């Protein structure tokens, strides 16, 4: 690691930056090839990245968690850099008000994580968690991206579900949720956000106002789907006076 005396911004080599951001060097190279990161400072054959690159990587991670595609992220970042501050607010970038709530990360010592999951923190499960983006390494600590997901996983393991099965289900859920998020983002972009910008409205406030609607739809649909599945599993008929999903 080196320190730039001009602006006192901390600098990292590629491997150090990847570790700090909780991603692989291969992923970092891929982001750079997709021009999601500004060019590093060159010193001979050595590329130096700084805290601004780290902040960008964390922004990308947050957007991926919210269901954005890499292509969409590139467009949004380009719009922000060109001066579209309303887009910055929508993304929750530094210096702008975040519209979408972030998950609360949890810091754990490796031994505490092992105790939390009753000895099921195997190399295979750790690798899967890192691949899903649930875990990142920060110095001597492990950071889980979401207190809620950590607690749910812990409860499922306590109920007898193997951690490997929990992570397998999480991967499936991620795929479905990505599709759901894309549906709602497309809906807003197509029918709401463009008109809001044209009227001079604050895009961040518009998104914040509509976000609970998406959450309510998903919660209601999941509840009805779980009811249908459980009735089918138990061989029960729908309650009298109710049809189908209710």
Automatic annotation (TrEMBL):
Keyword Hydrolase included in the entry's annotation:
no
Report keywords, A-Z. Answer: DNA-binding
Checking InterPro entries in the record gives: DNA-bd_dom_put_sf (IPR009061), MerR-type_HTH_dom (IPR000551), MerR_fam (IPR047057)
Q: Report domain HTH merR-type positions.
A: 11-79
Name of the protein described by the UniProt record: MerR family transcriptional regulator
């Amino acid at each position: 690691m080196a320190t730039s005396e001009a602006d006192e911004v901390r600098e990292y080599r590629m491997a150090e930056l990847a570790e700090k951001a909780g991603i692989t060097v291969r992923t970092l190279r891929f982001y750079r090839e997709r021009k999601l990161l500004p060019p590093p400072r060159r010193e001979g054959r050595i590329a130096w990245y700084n805290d601004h690159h780290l902040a960008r990587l964390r922004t990308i991670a947050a957007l991926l968690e919210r269901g954005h595609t890499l292509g969409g992220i590139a467009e949004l970042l380009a719009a922000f850099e060109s001066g579209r501050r309303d887009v910055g607010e929508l993304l929750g970038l530094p210096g702008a008000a975040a519209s979408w709530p972030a998950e609360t990360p949890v810091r754990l010592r490796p031994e505490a994580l092992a105790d939390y999951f009753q000895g099921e923190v195997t190399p295979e499960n750790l690798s899967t968690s890192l691949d899903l983006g649930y875990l990142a390494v920060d110095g001597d600590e492990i950071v889980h991206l979401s207190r809620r997901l950590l607690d749910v996983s812990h409860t499922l393991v306590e109920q007898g579900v193997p951690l490997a099965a929990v992570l397998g289900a999480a991967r499936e859920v991620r795929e479905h949720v990505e599709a759901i998020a894309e549906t709602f983002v497309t809906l807003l972009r197509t029918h709401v956000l463009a008109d809001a910008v044209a009227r001079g409205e604050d895009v961040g406030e518009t998104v914040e106002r509509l976000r609970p609607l998406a959450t309510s739809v998903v919660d209601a649909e999941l509840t009805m789907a779980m009811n249908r599945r459980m009735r089918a599993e138990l061989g029960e008929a729908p309650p009298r006076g109710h049809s189908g999903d209710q």
